[in-house]
Amino acid sequence: MPKxxxxxxxxxxxxxxxxxxxxxxxxxxxxxxxxxxxxxxASGISIATWIGFNILTAIWIWYAITHKxxxxxxxxxxxxxxxxxxxxxxxxxxxxxF
Length: 98
Hints:
Elements: H1 13-27, H2 30-39, H3 47-66, H4 70-92
Helix pairs in contact: 1-4, 2-4, 3-4
């Protein structure tokens, strides 16, 4: 006898706002990027930390593609782009590796 599947529950408030959160949260990296570019100083930044974030973000992107999780893909793709920009400017402006 086949199992009956439950209907998808009504969307919750959190389901409605999560797309905005997926866009806004990665944008919180922008002040750090701005500070590095405007001061031309990245001496307080650890490149290894941000490269580590990028490696883990790439795994999240792979997961999102595999499981067709659009919100996770948007969220992590934005983080990957912004983290990469930060790493590039951190290298240009003298960040340390550790």
